[in-house]
Amino acid sequence: MQNPASANANVTVTVTATATVSDFAELPATASHGPLRIEYRWVNERAGDAPIAVFLHEGLGSIAMWRDWPQTLCERLGMRGLVYSRPGYGLSTPRPHAQKWPADFMTAQACDILPALLDALSIDRDERGRMWVIGHSDGGSIALLYAALHPEALAGAVAIAPHVFVEDISVESIAQTKQLYETTDLRSKLSRYHADVDSAFYGWNDIWLDPAFRQWSIAGEIASIRQPLLAVQGHDDNYGTMAQIDTIAARVPHAQLVKLDACGHSPHRDAPEALNEAIAAFVLKISAS
């Protein structure tokens, strides 16, 4: 769940016991945020000038939490992959502990942070026109919003277990996750993937449990999506029901849906072969048309 600058050279960093080599892009301050340092990594770079797939992680995700799935999928698709940790996550600039994400935080990611990162990495208009966004959970919602906001700058989008509106099941599961975080070793486990684990966790948890967020919906915004769109959901997802991607189909009639059996909220971990097959079939069909 939950502006141009030059990228720095490779830096070796350590999050608890896990060593990770990452690059960093510096994004200048805007009206909506201060200066940001964004952790990113390229995968399958040997694909040369192949199209780019940008991976947008879940609300508690980061580069490290994707593990090797972006690499595996990019090799299957013959694409390069750009994986990054959103502000507040991984090794990117932490969220100040006193700051709460606003209700439209995912829209800000789609209309501000991601375009600024692409500028910082000198990804030009032609490359963006061939680009795919692939997002999971909150990242799936950001992928939908990016596709709606940038109709000419994308080849297509894949939304995996996205959120289009807030359901009771989502709030209940997120409340349970907060209890686990505060009473079990979940905090310790997550600290392997985030430099400031409380920044990552409470940034996501606080906004999703805010009563004002219950009215959040992007059903209207996504109706403007014109690019090819694949939406994937597991039947056993405890963070959302099939109503999420059924709403996408109602608002974006050309969208293709895939509903996976024996699969929870994380298809790339629960059913990676079925997910990869569905994405590859969709992307390759679009590319051949």
UniProtKB/TrEMBL annotation:
Residues of the AB hydrolase-1 domain: 54-278
Claim: Hydrolase is one of the keywords in the record: yes
InterPro entries xref list: AB_hydrolase_1, AB_hydrolase_fold, AB_hydrolase_sf
A GO molecular-function annotation: hydrolase activity
Name of one Pfam family that matches: Abhydrolase_6
Signal peptide: none
GO CC terms in record: membrane
Superkingdom of the organism of origin: Bacteria
Keywords, comma-separated and alphabetical: Hydrolase
UniProt KW Transmembrane helix keyword: no
PANTHER family associated with the record: HYDROLASE, PUTATIVE (AFU_ORTHOLOGUE AFUA_2G14860)-RELATED, MONOACYLGLYCEROL LIPASE
Protein's name according to its UniProt entry: Alpha/beta hydrolase
Organism, as annotated: Paraburkholderia aromaticivorans
Taxonomic classification: Bacteria, Pseudomonadati, Pseudomonadota, Betaproteobacteria, Burkholderiales
